[in-house]
Amino acid sequence: MNEEELIARASSGDSLAMEELLTAYMGMVKAVARQYYIVGATCEDVSQEGMIGLYKAAVTYNSEKGKFSAYAYACIKAAVLDAVKAASREKNKALNTSVPLDTAVLILDEDMTGSMAGGELMNKIKAGLSQAEEEIFVRWAEGMSYAEIAAELGKTVKNVDNAVQRIKRKAKAIIKRESRD
User: Fold this and answer.
1) What gap in Å lies between CA 99 and CA 82, rounded to an integer?
2) Per-residue confidence at 181, pLDDT binned at 50, 70, 90?
3) What is the pLDDT, as a whole number, of residue 128?
4) CATH number of residue 85's parent domain
5) What total of structural domains would you count in the chain?
6) Of 13, 69, 124, 125, which has the highest C-beta tally within 10 A?
7) Same domain, yes or no: 170 and 110
8) Are 40 and 67 in the same domain?
């Protein structure tokens, strides 16, 4: 079956044809997705937005107006750009930079660190961390955002978030252990 037949069948509701078409153009979707970044999203998330654009292209394509590949590329890019714009809107800033309340148990303030002589608690927490975690911990404790830490250390926001989650678990265990002693 040629591409025109495949597109016609996919747009008329043939799920197997749609799946074949989506698979055939997945490389194009991934190529477009790699060019963009959404805060808090993985490359796979961006690719999914591109796949939505490809699906819309298959459903709305009119063969009289040009080649499908050019139309698909435009739809994929538009879908990804829409997702990037939506994620970077000011109204979403709180969602992109927030920390879940249930994991916000590690509040390093004067009261907590002052309860142990000379910041002993901070030193115990740091001692339990890897070098990479300690670099992230110090910046995070200073109030830097995940994005700022990622930019400064040359890591992804997801890497920073994962490290902070590990740090919180380790710190929570140390705090529990110290409160028992």
Assistant:
1) 25
2) low
3) 84
4) 1.10.1740.10
5) 2
6) 125
7) yes
8) yes
pLDDT band at 102 (very low <50, low <70, confident <90, very high): very low
Helices (H), 12-64: 15-24, 26-33, 43-60
- In terms of residue numbers, what domain contains 13? 3-92
Distances, alpha carbon 68 to alpha carbons 48, 75, 77, in Å: 20, 10, 14
Report yes or no on whether pTM surpasses 0.70.
no
Helix/strand/coil for 147:
helix
How far does CA 15 lie from the centroid of its chain? 29
**Rounded to whole angstroms, how far apart are CA atoms 112 and 122?**
9
Tell me: do 82 and 134 sit in the same domain: no
What is the amino acid identity at position 175?
I
Residue with the bigger pLDDT between 81 and 109: it is 81
| Cα dihedral 46, 101, 149, 158 sign | negative
What is each CA distance from 15 to 47, 67, 68, in whole angstroms?
20, 22, 18
CATH number at residue 153: 1.10.10
